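Need tokens for this chain, all 386 residues.
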Amino acid sequence: MVRYLTSGESHGRGLLGIIEGIPAGLELDEAYLSHHLLRRQQGYGRGGRMKIETDHAEIITGVRFGKTIGAPIGLLIWNRDWENWSDKMKIEKPTEEDLSKIKKITLPRPGHADLAGAIKFGFDDIRPVIERASARETAMRVALGSVARKFLEQFGIVIGSHVVQIGKAKISTSVLSSARVMELHNIISKTDVSEIRALDAENEMISEIKTAQKNGDSLGGIYEVYVDGLPTGLGSYTHGDKKLDGILAQAIMSIHAVKGVEIGEGFENATRFGSETHDEIFYSEEKKYYRKTNRSGGLEGGVSTGERLIIRGAMKPIPTLARPLMSVDITTHEAASAHKERTDSCSVPACAVVAEAMTALALINPFLEKFGGDSMEEILTHFRKT
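Here are the structure tokens for all 386 residues:
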């Protein structure tokens, strides 16, 4: 059973991560992790923070001579911006003089965890909520997810993504249809060099972001994650918590600002007749069981079908605005504009990369449940027998 934890604040000294349950013998190095961390930092609409940080995950534990040893893997990402925040985020108990120089943040942002978090933990300053609820935490999720991704790749399982829509700008229906059958390595090669991680309508999407920036606003959007090479039979219909679609939905919905998830053509299928929805089953000696369509997105009854897994995530606009919405001071209860923080105007492309990482983390346990073992050699033996 793979388990993982992250720790750290947006402007703290760094981010810590630990992932337990990775079998022994998996080749792993920091360059692989940093490659995916760099992908997360890209995208038109990112803020000034990305110019400061050069995310690099240090492997602290669990790897020897370039291979995992079956022990928990500990990762560390230092925050370079810590130097500018060491007074506001110091770990030691502050003096009265220190406190006099630090202004409490008391104006929660609509759409953020600020108010609910302050009420939950009894804070009179929303800074602790801002720090831990920040999407900066997803850098460590990408690092940990890259460990899971590296594992899955050893079995021919490949994960990629592309942006479908930002604001009102979206790719054409024909391009979307093509993307859903396009070779995944072609999608990855094209989106990794796109400013917006899009296969189409890139200029229109960038124009939408520019309009938001001009108006002191922010934008959300929609992305799709694809997984190729999944064997049939991951997940289970026997209990709700074993259904792979439920596991994936929880993983994607746990990402900051994600408010919607669908598998395949989930919402569109809700408007169709059954005869127009379900993927007919065929058989040949070469392909065995196969489908000519994949409206189900590679899952039936909570179990993988062997077809491409298609997950769509919807991200709301970032709640920190250059022209803030109205709020209420948690100390005086007086009306005022919400707090302003340095922020992105749009981070949908980055969210797509985070979703890839979360997909890998969601898939690894169902995979190990079916083919598990304590070492890569043992798991490969089980996998080859199927």
